[in-house]
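Residues determine shape. Next comes a sample protein:
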Amino acid sequence: MPSSCRIRALWILTNQDTVLFSRRFPVVEKRWRAACERDESCLKEYNVLPSLPTDSEIAAAFIDRKKREGSARGFGIRINQSVEGSDSWVDDPITRHIISLCTKTEEDEKNRILWPLVLHIKGHYCILVLPLVEPDHLKTYTRMCTRSDCGNAVGADESLSPLLLNLPSITGAFMVGHMIGDIITGDVTEPEIVVSASPSVGGLLDSLTGSIGISARAKPVAAPVVGSTASGAATSGAMASDAPKLGLRPLDRDAIRSFISSAMPFGTPLDLNYTNISAVKINGFASADIPPADQKQPAWKPYLYRGKQRLLFTIHETVHAAMYDRDEIPDSIKISGQVNCRAELEGLPDVMFPLIGLDTARVELLSFHLCAQVPEHGNEKQALVFSPPLGNFVLMRYEGFSGMGPPIKGFYQLSMVSENEGAFLFKLRLMEGYRAPLSMDFCTVTMPFPRRRVLSFDGTPSIGTVSVAEHLVEWKIITTGRGVSGKSVEATFPGTVKFAPWQPQRSPSSRAILGNMEDEESDAETESTNNMANVEDLLTEKMNKDLHPVDLEEPFCWQAYDYAKVSFKIMGGSLSGMSIDPKTVSIFPAVKAPVEFSTQVTSGDYILWNTLGKCPVAAAPKA
């Protein structure tokens, strides 16, 4: 948990903008008021809110912001409708996640600003977390909201990103918001640990079975299910709101109260591990859980493990890619990964092993669990020492590049032959250059059409099966149970797709955002239409002029862009080169505990952009 993180208050709102739950921390609020009293200009010149607003004031301010900014997240950039003093006036996309609210006090009828509010949206709920910051930080932000220029200029005296980097409380508030969101939606899960269903023999036998496509099936290790007890008692440093809370079940409210009182008493986050807190409440402590006098028990291991000992590691990587198949636009592929661990070890042992693949050529960003002791980054084999907590946990997260090339190469083309019919072509190559024991467990390609209703399609792929839904066509190239290992696969799929007649849709919000842009460009559109000689361009122009503007909430559903999304899973190794040798893992004090290691690679946003259509691209910085 970041140091110097304290939370003043938090609110949970529904999508109807009703406050269902709120919690204020008077101990932290007292610090804020004392800071404002020392800085009188904060209240007089900058209209900073001296105290916390009521739940009804928060709801009203949140509704006003949604009307002003267009949505709960907001625009994030300055547009024609941006108002001076609003978040979008700052012209920084981070204002879609760290927002401000303006409320009017009954005393002076002035607009007072409440900032920084970390906004986390989970399911049908909006979680607002208000961390404690210095008045100087808030004054800097209010100046940004009124400046005439926009954007974060290089070398500028005041910009939002450096300001937030100096606030560790922002990171802590994000962690609190995400954990609260997981609790109220029931998504409190532990990292997945995968072990082989049958032990590896190794050597020549593994090489032979891998080369002919036979690989051991993997199964996940389920984390122990830990319930929570209802506890409605609030600590003296925290007060619960009495506002109407329709929509949350009583058990949910009790779970949130119990978690807050245990994880962040008096507004200071200590341990946000929901599993640890729930386990302590259910199991309590026994005399056997008391460690030896010469050992200090860490906060992340509240009680000791008893039972059969073993140590499990899983490297889970997610591949994000944008494949363009264009000479002027390079393909982009990034890998985000994490090392999951489960240490069923008695006592308070230390574990050490060299982590292979940490050279800076492939791994860019690294972060470790607070139980780890990490030397300086840069060596190929880097020794990692940690005192493991209970249950499944993420030992390390990283981002890097693939040293093996993209697992799926090729192109996707879609061309409209008439207003309601399109011809498409896929030509893909799977696992090119990949050798055993790497195997592809499944691979599926989806063509989404969010604004068009699919009536039928015609075409036969060279491999796999095809299914059609109302707004998509799905091509299953490799199905689970028929994985491919040690060889590459070529897959082609030509065909046509027919849509229901186009019905132009135009929402009021679209017209509000675009303003008078359509009227100003109407003459140009007419002239260009009259001069068109290409039938396909004419059809595209006719359809796209009725499309909605870019929806920032769904960046991959832009109406003027065509794309296909690939989903897959690869077993048997990592793409970044990250690895762990079970034979090099050491446990102190020494115990006989088997060590198992597995890897799993899954697709994230793996996008094939239509080579015949429009596509978004960001200019890469020059080295």
